[in-house]
């Protein structure tokens, strides 16, 4: 039996969604973020040394890293769906987006989360203007232009095909859901990028996505 070690408001939501798309049985073991630090509880380290979510167990196999998990589950349980056939251009695109989501799209979004925290964290009054000045400078000179670059790129790519790996829905779309949801929640992704906005609407309307929300509990990404 597959067990998803699911942290609230996290990347593991997309693993629940994938499993609902696959219609395979699985268990969910829930973990709650610390309300102040937002970190995962130490108990998750008993499953994987990094203590991050998602991590799954499937029989003797323990696997972390959402791209690897999604590729593994789709390869083992999708019966040929969700991963385009090996050796095709669509498969290469699928692999590309499986890596791009965490390797390229997430870093600037994470930086934006961190520098927003720097701006809003409690600190002595005399430190505030300095901290805010540094945060604003990093955001304006580096992070925001990088985010715009990625938004423009992803918008352009979704102009070429309905889904990220081609005209069929695939594992790549599940993996790409998280950076796009994070972008909509904290980095100003909106209807000015109509292809990306339509992608989010389409995935949110999928019955499997809705079922995964019911399984995972409230899903509100950090701002
Ligand atoms: N690149 C990893 C990132 C894993 C990760 O950072 N997960 C976050 C949740 S979205 C987490 O566990 N945060 C809690 C913590 O770091 O303690 C993946 O895609 O699985």
Give the arrangement of secondary structure elements.
Layout: E1 2-7, H1 12-22, E2 26-31, E3 55-58, E4 61-64, H2 66-77, H3 89-120, H4 128-158, H5 171-186, H6 194-204, H7 207-216
Parallel strand pairs: 1-2
Antiparallel strand pairs: 1-3, 3-4
Helix pairs in contact: 1-2, 1-5, 1-7, 2-3, 3-4, 3-5, 4-6
The structure holds glutathione (GSH).
Q: How many strands in all? A: 4
Counting DSSP H or I runs of 4 or more residues, the number of helices is 7
Biggest pleated-sheet summary: 4 strands, mixed
Tell me the β content.
Answer: 5-15%
Helix content, binned percent: 55-70%
The succession of helices and strands, N to C, reads EHEEEHHHHHH
Rg value: 18 Å
| Global geometry | globular
Structure, explained:
This protein is an alpha+beta fold. Helix content is 55%, strand content 9%. The chain contains 7 helices and 4 strands; from the N terminus they run E-H-E-E-E-H-H-H-H-H-H. A 4-stranded mixed sheet has the order 2-1-3-4, with helices on one face. Helix 1 packs parallel to helix 2 and helix 3 (89-120) packs antiparallel against helix 4. The longest helix has 32 residues, at 89-120. The mean pLDDT is 96.
Notable features of this structure?
223 residues; alpha+beta; 7 helices; 9% strand; binds glutathione
In short:
The chain is about 55% helix and about 10% strand. The protein has seven helices and four strands. Strands 2-1-3-4 form a four-stranded mixed beta sheet, with helices on one face.
């Amino acid at each position: 039996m597959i067990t998803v070690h699911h942290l609230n408001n996290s990347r593991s939501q997309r693993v629940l969604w994938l499993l609902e798309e696959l219609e395979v049985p699985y268990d969910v073991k829930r973990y709650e973020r610390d309300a102040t630090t937002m970190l995962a509880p130490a108990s998750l380290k008993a499953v994987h040394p990094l203590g991050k979510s998602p991590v799954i167990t499937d029989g003797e196999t323990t696997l972390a890293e959402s791209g690897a998990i999604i590729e593994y589950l789709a390869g083992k349980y999708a019966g040929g769906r969700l991963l385009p056939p090996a050796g095709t251009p669509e498969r290469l695109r699928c692999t590309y987006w499986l890596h791009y989501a965490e390797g390229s799209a997430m870093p600037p979004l994470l930086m934006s989360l961190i520098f927003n925290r720097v701006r809003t964290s409690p600190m002595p009054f005399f430190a505030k203007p300095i901290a805010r000045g540094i945060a604003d400078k990093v955001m304006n000179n580096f992070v925001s232009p990088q985010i715009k670059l990625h938004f423009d790129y992803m918008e352009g790519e979704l102009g070429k095909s309905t889904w990220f790996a081609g005209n069929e829905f695939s594992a790549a779309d599940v993996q790409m859901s998280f950076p796009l949801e994070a972008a909509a929640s904290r980095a100003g992704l909106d209807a000015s990028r109509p292809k990306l906005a339509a992608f989010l609407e389409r995935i949110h309307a999928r019955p499997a996505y809705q079922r995964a929300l019911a399984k995972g509990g409230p899903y509100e990404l950090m701002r």
